[in-house]
Design goal:
The chain is mostly beta strands. Helix content is 0%, strand content 39%. The strands form two sheets. Strands 6-7-1-2-5-8 form a six-stranded antiparallel beta sheet, with no helix packed on it. It has a two-stranded antiparallel ribbon with strand order 3-4.
Length: 94
Amino acid sequence: MLKPLGDRVILDQPEEEETTVGGIVLASNAQEKPQTANVVAVGDGRVLDNGEKVAPTVKVGDKVLFDKYAGTEVKYQDTTYLVLHEKDLVAIVD
């Protein structure tokens, strides 16, 4: 598995099939990507200017909401992950 560095977080976005009210299944390129994902790996945390390390606030298994255009998509072992900084996370979904 990938191990993120610093304050980075790796997310797994489940593919969701979207169907219209009339029962038509939309193609994946016509759908808007979901902004929620599951955390699969978390870095060690952010290092402040004074050298102190701040632990991450999310943990593996959390479902999170993130900024719409945040992160970088990475393909690893036939799975696409989203890698982003913890500051790009908006909320933890309960």
